[in-house]
Amino acid sequence: MIKKGLFAFIMLFVTAALTACGNGNENDGKTTIEFMHSSVEQERLAVINELVAKFEKENPDIKIKQVPVEEDSFNTKVVTLASAGVLPAVIEVGQDYAKVMDKDELIDKDAVKSVLDHVGHDHFYDGALKLVKTEDGKSFTGVPISGWVQGIWYNKEMLAYKGFEEPKSWDEVLTIAKAFTDSSNKKYGIALPTVEGGFSEQAFSQFALSNNANVLDREGKLNMNTPEMKEALIFYQELAKYTMPGSNDVTEVKDAFMNGSVPMAVYSTYILPAVYEQGNSANIGFAIPTEETKAVYGTVSALTISSGLEDEQKTAAKKFVEFVAQPENMTRWVLMSPGGAQPVSKLVVENEVYHANDVVKSFGELSTEIAASFDDVQMFGLVEGKNFLKMGDVTSSGAIPKLINSITVGEKKVNSELKKADKAISEILKEK
Fold it and tell me: What is the pLDDT of residue 1?
């Protein structure tokens, strides 16, 4: 499953005629299609094998040939196969890399939309569908299967000890962070990403978007240097005074929260399995950064259908994706990583098998609350239902993480660093 981070954007220049080969009709009369995914671990692969076997039993005229690929090599593999004209018919893909594939016309968006229309849009969380919407808002780059969300995790007991409850605003987050910080004893109020990397962009985006600040406007034009963005940067800079010194990345943030050095941390749901293993499921809470509005950073793992397929291959691919998107099968998929992976469908949340899982059950109502937060998903470059492809160029430039790192670790002035970032992004977009 494509789980974490923002992907490097590698542009392809291949024609649709070259895509989606390596699938075809076998001598036994079955239509064979390839399915590329990242579930290479033995336990996860066993689940995929079960789903494939079940599908083939229900569809004896179709054969699924799996192409498991390590997550770190996944996007490069897509490039290689597409260039060679042997792109698998069905591909697991994160929403960011799906934008790359869409830009290079490697996705059969009509086929994807057909599946979603048949499965039904209503049972998906609205935010999950927004993440896979095309730029024109008319179609989709994939069918969401699972996802994860990011927010502020807090230790209930630690907060209660000092008389605090769940933080519901910027001011409350800042007040709690100040109250717990004792740098001389290496105690801090919040574990906050400050590294010059994608994690910082993800974390900061929640605060910015909660203040109605986005990188692009409704026309897709650069809208970085605004009062709302300045306010968010000033707040993030102030909040960073109460986090651990240095450039904090995934490891530093997670470790600080898990060892009790901080009562709060900005992290994804992939912190939950560690919390469960420590036996502290009842002691964790989830808060969403809120100023003018709620804003959750989220990502989805989706199944997409390659362009250029022959009719029988396309039919088979659509059947398979529709099969995986059935609630009971999506439930099995999500439970490959219980706690970390989250349902993108309300029907999965309502599924008895999902709630019976030991990890999910241990978090009680929090599991439902977290899944429902997909409806609060906002992203840089996602504006009024338009998912602008050019945001990928902005992200891949690294300008925003550099800005975050310079005002936190570097303690540089917000105004000057924002102007630098705005100019850098403007040049990037001008080149495209």
Answer: 40
- Look at residue 15 in the predicted model and tell me its pLDDT: 38
DSSP alpha helices (H): ranges in 259-310?
Answer: 272-277
Nearest to 297 by CA among 404, 370, 191: 370
Which pLDDT band holds residue 385 (cuts at 50, 70, 90)?
confident
Handedness of CA 43, 47, 48, 54 (dihedral sign): positive
Query: What pLDDT was estimated at residue 25?
Result: 58
User: What pLDDT was estimated at residue 370?
Assistant: 97
Task: Say if 16-147+300-363 and 149-297+378-431 have the same CATH topology.
Answer: yes
Q: Model-level pTM greater than 0.70?
A: yes
Question: Side-chain half-sphere of 177: how many Cα atoms within 13 Å?
Answer: 24
In whole angstroms, what is the distance from residue 234 CA to residue 222 CA?
A: 20
Q: What's the CATH code, domain 16-147+300-363?
A: 3.40.190.10
Instruction: Check pLDDT > 80 for residue 286.
Output: yes
Distance, C-alpha 9 to centroid of its chain? 15
> pLDDT by residue (tens digit) across 296-310?
999 999 999 999 999
Query: In the CATH hierarchy, which fold is given to the domain comprising 149-297+378-431?
Result: D-Maltodextrin-Binding Protein; domain 2 (3.40.190)
Residues in Cβ contact with 259 at an 8 Å cutoff, skipping those fewer than 6 apart? none
Instruction: Report the 10 Å Cβ neighbour count for 342.
Output: 30
Residue 343 structure tokens: 């349902």
Quickly list H helices, 22-107. Answer: 42-58, 74-84, 95-103
Q: At what angle do helices 311-324 and 42-58 cross, to 10 degrees?
A: 120
Q: How far is CA 200 from the centre of its chain?
A: 14
- The two beta strands, 24-25 and 31-37, are antiparallel
- pLDDT computed for residue 28 by the predictor: 74
Whether 38 shows a pLDDT value over 90: the answer reads yes
Q: What gap in Å lies between CA 425 and CA 190, rounded to an integer?
A: 30
Domain boundaries, the chain: 16-147+300-363, 149-297+378-431
pLDDT in tens, 254-263: 999 999 999 9
Confidence of residue 6 (pLDDT cuts 50, 70, 90): very low
CA dihedral sign of residues 122, 286, 190, 413: positive
